[in-house]
Amino acid sequence: MGSTKSLVMTKPVPKNDFDRKIIGPDSYEYFNDISKICQKKYMGLLKGQIGLLLGIACISVIPPITKYENIQLFAQLILIVIVLILMVIQYKENYVAGWQKARFLSESIMSNCWLFIFKYENYDTSYEKALLIFHARIKEMKKEIDINKFLSITKTPNNDSDNPKWIMNSFDKNIDDKKNIYIKQRIADQIRWYTKKADYNAINSKVYFLAGLICMVTGMLLTILVLMKYIPNLSYLGFFTTIAASIFSWTQTKRFEELKTTYSVTADELNDFKKLILNSTSEAELREIIFSTEKAISREHKLWFSKVIE
Fold first, then answer.
1. Contact 162, 141 (CB under 8 A)
2. 185, burial (CB in 10 Å: exposed 0-12, middle 13-18, buried 19+)
3. Which residues contact 208 (CB under 8 A, 6 or more apart)?
4. Alpha carbons 155 and 34: distance in angstroms, whole number
5. 3-class secondary structure, 22
6. Which residues on neighbouring strands pair with residue 9, listed in sequence order?
7. What is the pLDDT of residue 300?
8. Do 276 and 256 contact (CB within 8 A), yes or no?
9. End-to-end Cα, the chain, rounded Å
């Protein structure tokens, strides 16, 4: 791997179940870590806001106690102030843009690794010249994103000496060997990733929908019991509606329903590309298929990126 002196994080970012197995260039790993840090911070802020709003709802459903009424109101006031502070932090730090732009950049770097190996267009030259072109492209991509704008705890890379051994070792292999490497190390890995993500989002979509539905029905039933004088008159409907709204808000933020379809479609596309690669008859044809495959892999990240900057 290339030098990592300028690619220093304040602390290492642990791998998770959804990280791809293949290790990219230093720049890929660097921006991949930035993306995960921004995502974690953004989701943490959202969870904090939702948790505090639920806390306010819990306090509001408790019957007013004359002796402690002011304490209850003061507690609610404190919680809503904290929610407002978290909202301001979320707006100011703009973690969503950092998350998605860093993800877009890291995926673009990884795609260029494979185009490099298959000598696509300008990469069809000697390894030394292709490596210089690779570094130049990474440098150009980095200019599009001011990472310091999104995450002050990182140091912007100024060293573009990425030179992974797996690229160097694969560059001069024959086309059949490259084809096998690509199918095993890229296509198969991506199909697993997108399939796992599709299943994850499908399960969460159902779970959160049912949870929200149960909360709304529970609020309705308890309110009916209040009207029938079977239970004390408390703010059941408002409480459970707040919980349901929080659940549905989280579902929309995580885009479970949308992503389960998108990832499933992408996995199917990659299986089709795998067949095309196996049936390719010429090196020129294979290169075009590889290029189309990389476009399909990065499509979701580009869509996210375009939504963020609109």
1. no
2. middle
3. 247, 248, 250, 251, 256
4. 10
5. coil
6. 154
7. 62
8. no
9. 36
Which amino acid makes up residue 211?
Answer: A
Chain center to CA of 92: 20
- Residue 12 burial (C-beta neighbours within 10 Å; 0-12, 13-18, 19+): exposed
In terms of residues, how long is the chain?
310
43-57 pLDDT tens trace:
999 999 989 988 888
> How many CA within 13 A on the CB side of residue 251?
21
Distance CA 58, CA 196 (A): 36
**Cα-Cα-Cα-Cα dihedral sign, residues 17, 294, 109, 38:** negative
- Pull the structure tokens for residue 94: 């703009």
Query: How far apart (Å, rounded) are the C-alpha atoms in residues 78 and 260?
Result: 38
Q: What is the pLDDT of residue 182?
A: 93
Confidence class of residue 252 from pLDDT cuts 50, 70 and 90? confident
> d(Cα 12, Cα 172) in Å, to the nearest integer?
34
Q: What is the pLDDT of residue 17?
A: 56
Give the Cα separation of 237 and 221 in Å (integer). Answer: 9
